[in-house]
Amino acid sequence: MQFPEYRARRLRRTETLRSMVREVQLDHRDFILPFFVRHGKNVRNPIASMPGVFQLSIDELLRDLEEPVERGMPAIILFGIPEKKDPVGSEGYSKSGIIQQAVRRVKDTYPDLVVITDVCLCDYTDHGHCGIIRDNDVDNDQTIELLARMAVSHARAGADIVAPSDMMDGRVAAIREALDEAAYEWLPILSYAAKYASAFYGPFRDAAESSPRFGDRRSYQMDPANSDEGIREAALDVNEGADLLMVKPALPYLDVIWRVRNTFDLPLVAYNVSGEFAMIKAAAEKGWIDGDRCMMEALTAIKRAGADLIISYHALEAVRILQGDSPRQRKK
Asked: Is the N or C terminus of the chain more exposed, i.e. has fewer CB atoms within 10 Å?
């Protein structure tokens, strides 16, 4: 069919028509909301590079969870800032670690909320790398032993899903074996399967206080130029027992999300990372873009590329808009 017999604009004429034929629909159940938690009480430290995001003490975290839970958001992911850091990241797998304490309190208060924990040592090591350092590089095999220990400690605290983000070879298999031996064979692993050595992580490192003290993470995170390698990494994690897969970052890697979606029949998560969030916020503050529309367009693109779930610092704002309760909508 050709013009004038076929007019594509016929189904774009009104918002109701557009919504009826919309191919991708965002929903409040699509989102996972990240939080940064630290020791103390009444702590709410703003993160300059991430407007509206804070480092929170556990009591403040519990308060901030009231609205997402009321709105029916299904899950959060927690990142910890320890009181002390050391070369082996010992608070990461301590029973009294900040994440372990936070998980227990959150599950006591909101038992139906799915709590995902980040399994990586970078937040807890004094050198800022994701594992044990030997000869100025991360020792892969020593590191995965500690990651497995960390995952089990999170499981014992009550985590619903553990999410290794370190990009060590073999870490999914090591974590799966350790969880099974500890009688947590039912606990899922969300693998950061294709995690790229990205410049878009800068604001996160401010928030988590996890910047490397020397070098960078390119010897273990993926080269941004490689797409086939992302499929190989995902295949390795599937074979090692991953239950869900993740691509990180999201927007610069929509092609990788699409390829992973069409290669593997597992739930797929995309991480809309801190730099992606900060760019929209900064441009909106300057008045250069409509921040809400750009946010929703970006999140829709991530889902359109194939993500089932989206981790995003925009998540609560997006859900308010989806549920007709954004500040702009209230003004109208």
From this structure: C
- If you ran DSSP here, which 8-state letter would residue 30 be given? G
- Measure Cα distances from 122 to 86, 128, 138, 208 in Å: 10, 5, 11, 9
With a cut of 90, say whether residue 326 has pLDDT above it.
Answer: no
Q: What letter does residue 215 receive in the DSSP assignment?
A: S
Which residues belong to the active site?
Answer: 195, 248
Domain coordinates of the chain in residue numbers?
24-331
**Mean local confidence (pLDDT), 197-216:** 84
Share of the chain above pLDDT 90, in %: 87
Is the Cβ–Cβ distance between 134 and 88 less than 8 Å? no
Long-range contacts of 94-101 (CB under 8 A, 24+ apart): 94/153, 95/153, 95/156, 95/157, 97/124, 97/153, 98/37, 98/38, 98/39, 99/37, 99/154, 99/157, 100/153, 100/154, 100/156, 100/157, 101/58, 101/157
pLDDT at 332 over 50: no
- Measured distance CA(202)–CA(224) in Å, rounded: 16
Exposed / middle / buried, residue 290 (Cβ in 10 Å: 0-12, 13-18, 19+): middle
Identify the CATH homologous superfamily for domain 24-331: Aldolase class I (3.20.20.70)
Tokens standing for 261? 């979606």
Closest CA to 32 of 279, 270, 327, 304: 270
DSSP string, 160-204: SEEEE-S--TTHHHHHHHHHHHTT-TT--BEEEEEEB--GGGHHH
User: 214 pLDDT exceeds 70?
Assistant: yes
To the nearest 10 degrees (0 to 180), the angle between helices 254-263 and 291-305 is 30
Over residues 26-43, the mean pLDDT reads 97
Work out the mean pLDDT of the chain and round it to a whole number.
Answer: 94
pLDDT of residue 217: 79
How many whole angstroms separate alpha carbon 126 and alpha carbon 96? Answer: 18
CA nearest to 219, candidates 281, 291, 134: 134
Residue 225 CA, distance from chain mean position: 22
215, amino acid identity = G
